[in-house]
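Chapter summary example: a protein plus NDP.
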Amino acid sequence: MSSCDLQVKSKYLSEVLSKVEAKNAHEPEFLQAVKEVLTSIEPVILKHEEEYRKSALLERLLEPERIISFRVPWIDDKGQIQVNRGFRVQFNGTLGPYKGGLRFHPSVNQSIMKFLAFEQIFKNSLTCLPIGGGKGGSDFDPKCKSDMEIMKFCQSFMNELQKHIGQDVDVPAGDIGVGSREIGYLFGQYRKIRNSYEAGVLTGKGLEYGGSLVRKEATGYGLMYFMREMLKANNIDVKGKNVIISGSGNVAIYACEKAQELGANVIAMSDSSGCIYDSNGIKLDIIKDIKEVKRGRIKDYLNYVPTALYKENSSIIPPIYNIKADIVLPCATQNDINLETAKILVQNGVIAVGEGANMPCTNEAVEYFIENKVLVAPGKAANAGGVATSALEMCQNSMRYFWAFDEVDKKLEAIMVNIFNLCQNAANEYNYPRNYVVGANIAAFKKVSEGMLAQGII
Ligand code: NDP
């Protein structure tokens, strides 16, 4: 959709949308994220149009403070030299040191890095913790690589990245393809080069060396805390609801764990090859063993539960979304649910969608859900538990102390309840009842914009 097709009342917003589109024409994911945020904060823009125009607030908000792109050469197990491209986008440091994960996946490019970093600004704002927005990664594919290859790649990646990060500058963490193993290798290399133990320079670390309890579980647990609050506000109980979860990585696994703890019945999960359906409820210990220990495929679930069903991805619509469920949690990757898929889900009676992944639903899909009274928990709010707990990890590192599991979990829960309330209050204030997508964008934008205006033209 071009900006000309978007119905906006604000002349300033319309001009900004045209400019951003012309300037970033080859960055579709970034443009998608920008349009989603800017069109939904239009009521705020209309209130402050002249002030924002005078200070070029939106133009400044849309231009990353810095993009670092670099070469990552490494030697594979056959002795051959491989070259990947690394990125770090330091998008907006108004609220604190840049903070956001690293993604290692062959699809990584500048557009995806910029969309993720842009979303991160608002997500981090919603946590109410002092963190700015950034993101990074590489087009490196960790699949089918040996441990040695992963380590060599991480070391080479850090040789360059270390020049640009620091516990008061920029604090990366994990994302797709970057888990505790990769964070360990990255941290080791940083420490060796700097000859200094700066535990707070990376989050998602192992518990033995400065990691926080609950960080592993945080995004998935946080998603379900937000979902529980959203359903409660609409007089719906999560207990007994059928849930499908796309993905079977970090976010998906711990969303499943908390959903089951809250009494929901998780009946399907997936990976990039296909999905499994177990009408008796997913046995999560088996999924954890397959994915966290053996690094296998979701299909292997059938070796343990022969009564479950498996369907390979073949069509454009991932087969998991043909399964009837009350709650859908897309926890894999961006643009997983398009308009066509949204129509199937609505037809099948979905009542709530919780975005565990970043931008897993296209803008058209989100609009369709909302038009059809489906409750949507937007990613930048619902999956903010991960980065919030990362900020708690930084806090513990600064104190040179650590908190018990329950203490961190209670803080996480309180943060997610607060995020839900912020979204709900902003939605109500601007007369978009039950529209938590608009609510999240407005609440997050207000804080960032006020900070930017206060800090002058920089
Ligand atoms: P993981 O790498 O642990 O897991 C990703 C999962 O998604 C895997 O099951 C993977 O399957 C699947 N997947 C990846 N790409 C595709 C694709 N193109 N099509 C279908 N399935 C795919 O990542 P995370 O769980 O950490 O992250 C998942 C999402 O959540 C991402 O959007 C991430 O940005 C977001 N997120 C993560 C946070 C965190 O704390 N980890 C915090 C906030 C958001 P396969 O193994 O086959 O590739």
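Key point: The pocket of NDP is lined by residues 174-177, 219, 247-252, 271-273, 331-333, 356-358, 383, 386 (CB under 6 Å).
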